[in-house]
From TrEMBL:
<dbReference type="InterPro" id="IPR001834">
    <property type="entry name" value="CBR-like"/>
</dbReference>
<dbReference type="InterPro" id="IPR008333">
    <property type="entry name" value="Cbr1-like_FAD-bd_dom"/>
</dbReference>
<dbReference type="InterPro" id="IPR039261">
    <property type="entry name" value="FNR_nucleotide-bd"/>
</dbReference>
<dbReference type="InterPro" id="IPR001433">
    <property type="entry name" value="OxRdtase_FAD/NAD-bd"/>
</dbReference>
<keyword id="KW-0274">FAD</keyword>
<dbReference type="Pfam" id="PF00970">
    <property type="entry name" value="FAD_binding_6"/>
</dbReference>
<keyword id="KW-0560">Oxidoreductase</keyword>
<dbReference type="Pfam" id="PF00175">
    <property type="entry name" value="NAD_binding_1"/>
</dbReference>
<comment type="similarity">
    <text>Belongs to the flavoprotein pyridine nucleotide cytochrome reductase family.</text>
</comment>
<feature type="binding site">
    <location>
        <position position="177"/>
    </location>
    <ligand>
        <name>FAD</name>
    </ligand>
</feature>
<feature type="binding site">
    <location>
        <position position="151"/>
    </location>
    <ligand>
        <name>FAD</name>
    </ligand>
</feature>
<feature type="binding site">
    <location>
        <position position="170"/>
    </location>
    <ligand>
        <name>FAD</name>
    </ligand>
</feature>
<protein>
    <recommendedName>
        <fullName>FAD-binding FR-type domain-containing protein</fullName>
    </recommendedName>
</protein>
<dbReference type="InterPro" id="IPR017938">
    <property type="entry name" value="Riboflavin_synthase-like_b-brl"/>
</dbReference>
<dbReference type="GO" id="GO:0005739">
    <property type="term" value="C:mitochondrion"/>
</dbReference>
<keyword id="KW-0285">Flavoprotein</keyword>
<feature type="domain" description="FAD-binding FR-type">
    <location>
        <begin position="97"/>
        <end position="202"/>
    </location>
</feature>
Length: 378
């Protein structure tokens, strides 16, 4: 019973000692109750002698004190087991959106002039996330320990069967966290928190989802591709199109991202279409062989070319005048997801609103007549 003593606050400890001493004084010693051999002779404590100068404590005060001490000890004994009072035992650090968990970098491999594929071990209890049917896009925050700054990064496959998360991470000449992650080596400590849902997947809501990305902006779409489109293509009737742009062929996403996309698109053209753009061709080579690489940025003409007929505004008469648009039409329910550098988001879907709220739809998609329930800026 008394092993709980270390948990006590000093005041409680004092009360418990009082209770202990009361118990000792009112019960015979344990040995005499349970041992068959006679208790060893204990010298009788000297009888207290009260001098006339010392005030004698009246009996009723002594009894009162004993009762109070008894009641206090009794309550401590019974209520210490209550976890609401003592609190649950401390848990090992776990991955949570609210606090950082310490884990480590498993590997880092260059994947272009300023990008790396970085593998980070994840606390094992995150594993069920991949087994769940929720294909929502999520990311984790990685903390730059040197200056205590965090940035979001998107694991390409969620958590793999080894409990690792693979990221494609770019560093910028004056960027803080990207450069810090690039400086890390296998075995180095990394602090992460998450998962943070960045876009909720809902089955049965859209006939067509069009993903438009620039540079590392492809990472959330790679996650959706790996966790939903590739993993269980028959789980949804939604068709997907990915339109991606990078500066030059050598800056295109690495093979681990593009290869399964290229293969799946050629085998399942009704389910998934892939269109790749580069601003210009230089001496660099693309990481995988791609049949048709479009030249130039993603602009209105290029975007229209990538979309199928019924979604093209020229063919969809109701887009010309929202007032005449029928309430119940057979038009495909379409959603555009846009992710990339801010100038690209501005040009394609209009700028974010205040505090990174969605803001109104502008840019090319706004001009094409798409509305805020058809466009989402990641
Ligand atoms: C939900 C979410 C998920 C993300 N997932 C990923 C991911 O998987 N992989 C990934 O690499 N990034 C990802 N990012 C971006 C990432 O969070 C950081 O914003 C990025 O790494 C830059 O951070 P930094 O600290 O290195 O640079 P910062 O310190 O934020 O930037 C400093 C300077 O770098 C330069 N800079 C920053 N961004 C750009 C740019 N786009 N173009 C040119 N210059 C720039 C600017 O000059 C800026 O002043 C994600 C962002 C979000 C919101
Ligand atoms: N929210 C998320 O979930 C998330 C996830 C990952 C990444 N991100 C963001 O994505 C961005 C990726 O940046 P990056 O450095 O990898 O990209 P980048 O290499 O600088 O650019 C990628 C492509 O975007 C094009 N682009 C830029 N401005 C454009 C415009 N106005 N119109 C059309 N195309 C334009 C670029 O063309 P030019 O070379 O001609 O400019 C290039 O082809 C970062 O800002 C990152 O924060 C966000």
């Amino acid at each position: 019973m008394w092993r709980r003593v270390p948990c006590l606050r000093p005041q409680q400890f004092a009360v418990q000692r009082a209770w202990k001493s009361t118990r000792r004084s009112t019960r015979p010693p344990k040995s005499s109750l349970f041992e068959s051999t006679p208790a060893p002779f204990l010298p009788r404590p000297p009888t207290p002698v009260f001098h006339l100068s010392e005030p004698r404590i009246p009996t009723h005060v002594r009894i009162g004190t004993c009762l109070v001490a008894f009641a206090a000890g009794f309550s401590i004994y019974f209520f210490l087991d209550d976890p609401e009072i003592v609190g649950p035992p401390p848990k090992p650090p776990v991955l949570s959106p609210n606090q950082f968990a310490v884990t480590k970098l498993n590997s880092a491999e260059a994947s272009g002039p300023s990008t790396k594929l970085v593998k980070i071990a994840s606390p094992p209890h995150l594993l069920p996330l991949n087994n769940s049917s929720d294909a929502s896009i999520w990311s984790v925050f990685i903390k730059d320990d040197d200056i205590q700054v965090e940035r979001a990064y998107t694991p390409l496959h969620g958590v793999d069967s080894n409990g690792d998360m693979l990221f494609w991470i770019k560093k910028y000449p004056k960027g803080e966290v990207g450069r810090w992650i690039h400086s890390k080596n296998p075995g180095d400590k990394i602090e992460i928190r998450g998962p943070i849902k960045t876009w909720p997947w809902k089955d049965g809501v859209w006939d067509e989802v069009v993903m438009i990305s620039g540079g590392t902006g492809i990472t959330p779409f790679a996650q959706l591709f790996n966790n939903l489109i590739l993993k269980s293509p028959s789980a949804t009737n939604t068709r997907f199109t990915l339109i991606h742009s990078s500066r030059v062929p050598g800056e295109l996403p690495p093979a681990v991202i593009l290869e399964p996309m290229v293969a799946f698109a050629s085998g399942n053209p009704d389910k998934f279409k892939l269109h790749v753009f580069v601003d210009e061709v230089d001496a660099s080579k693309p990481p995988v062989s791609i049949e048709n690489i479009n030249m130039g940025r993603i602009q209105e003409a290029g975007l229209k070319r990538c979309l199928k007929g019924p979604e093209e505004p020229s063919k969809a008469w109701w887009r010309k005048s929202p007032v005449q648009r029928p309430q119940q039409s057979n038009k495909p329910r379409i959603l555009f997801l846009v992710c990339g550098p801010e100038p690209m988001i501005d040009a394609i879907a209009g700028p974010y609103g205040r505090n990174f709220s969605q803001g109104p739809v502008g840019g090319i998609l706004g001009k094409m007549g798409y509305t805020s329930d058809e466009v989402y800026k990641l």
